[in-house]
Amino acid sequence: MAHSTPIYMDNHATTRTDPRVVEAMLPYFSEVYGNPGSVGHEYGAEAHTAVELATASLAAQLGADPQEIIFTSGATESNNLAIRGLAERNQRRGKHLVSVRTEHRAVLDPLERLVQQGYEVTLLEVERHGSTRAGWLDPEQVAEAIQDDTILVSVMLANNEIGVIQPLAEIAAVCRHSGVLLHCDATQAVGKIPVSVRELGVDLMSFSGHKIYGPKGIGALYVRRGSPIVRFSPQITGGGQQGGRRSGTLNVPGIVGMARALELCIDELPTEEERLAGLRDQLFAGLQERLSGVQLCGPTLDERNPAGDRLRLPGNLDVAFGDIDGEAVLIEMDNLAVSSGATCSSHEPGPSHVLLALGLSEDLARSSLRFGLGRFNTPAEVDSAIKSVTSAIEKLRKLAG
Ligand SMILES: Cc1ncc(COP(=O)(O)O)c(C=O)c1O
């Protein structure tokens, strides 16, 4: 019997590369394959031009200047470059950093390393489970945490598990007032909601190709130019590419692909946000209708800030079922690809640190499922997902007696 592939609803983990992105990338593997640093001949010059055009496009889509974009291998490297690079360079000014409990491990781990090296890190709390703004960070908390020796605040724009969107513009105003630089991990937000570095007022911002229907292995760090100067130490040194800020031969197909991917996201954003929010609401309503004890993790689905902006990513749903193990549900469903809060990531044992930070018990966190709806999902797939989850949970509940 032919094996039918499971429905993919794990778009926070990664996305399928859009065929239009693949098409844009293809010439840069075997036709325009020069090293963009070798501008003395046509092969290199063409690759260099392609990188310049892609950089200009990416920067324009994010409200940045092309010189403010540094290419990396992904958001993990961008976060490391921002946090460790800045801490290393500014240690004589201070050794205190501020971040949030619900950040991605690609922020928390570099911070933990800094603590081992003698830095001090304050991790802020977020609104608790049950609040309509669960997971939200009050900018007031940032103001209270800043000390005379604080050199960096790092707050993500959208959370990869509960989709909460943080008030970055307000946090930036707090940081600016105190003369402290602000880094933002915008990996889950770029391409999903409107993002402009100038409007947000961030000094550094990380993002990644594979979360926006682009390729894996490419990302970028935006570093604001102008005053006050953002100084950081490079973390990867060598050939001096990108002004020495990040050495290594540029990933030309990746850069072209990420730029095309962002163009497509931005073109489709006005309709896609509404479409995904509709699918997500359909999914939540269906689960609530068929199953008892469904608890929403994170902010209320239709929650907005006073300016009318969403407080939750349109394609995100995270729900806990209370009495079953999320991993067991995943094993039970062979036709649906989602992830569970039983393990925060496949590399981290134990329940999700994000859900624990909201105040969920370990058991409740373990019983959760995270859905990331994306470009290729349809209403019919949502109906199938509701059926799969319902029958898996009903079966597990029956077995548990
Ligand atoms: C919020 C956030 N930051 C950073 C990363 C790491 O991104 P990359 O896979 O590009 O290194 C992820 C990926 O899961 C993420 O969701």
From TrEMBL:
Gene3D superfamilies: 1.10.260.50, Aspartate Aminotransferase, domain 1 (3.90.1150.10), Type I PLP-dependent aspartate aminotransferase-like (Major domain) (3.40.640.10). Signal peptide: none annotated. Its cofactor is pyridoxal 5'-phosphate. It comes from Bythopirellula goksoeyrii. This is cysteine desulfurase. The keyword Cell division does not apply. It catalyses: (sulfur carrier)-H + L-cysteine = (sulfur carrier)-SH + L-alanine. Its EC number is 2.8.1.7. SUPFAM superfamilies: PLP-dependent transferases. Keywords: 2Fe-2S, Iron, Iron-sulfur, Metal-binding, Pyridoxal phosphate, Transferase. InterPro entries: Aminotrans_V_dom, Aminotrans_V_PyrdxlP_BS, Cysteine_dSase, PyrdxlP-dep_Trfase, PyrdxlP-dep_Trfase_major, PyrdxlP-dep_Trfase_small. PROSITE patterns: AA_TRANSFER_CLASS_5 (PS00595). Belongs to the class-V pyridoxal-phosphate-dependent aminotransferase family. NifS/IscS subfamily. Residues 7-383 form the Aminotransferase class V domain. The keyword Cytoplasm does not apply. GO terms for molecular function: 2 iron, 2 sulfur cluster binding; cysteine desulfurase activity; metal ion binding. Pfam families: Aminotran_5 (PF00266).
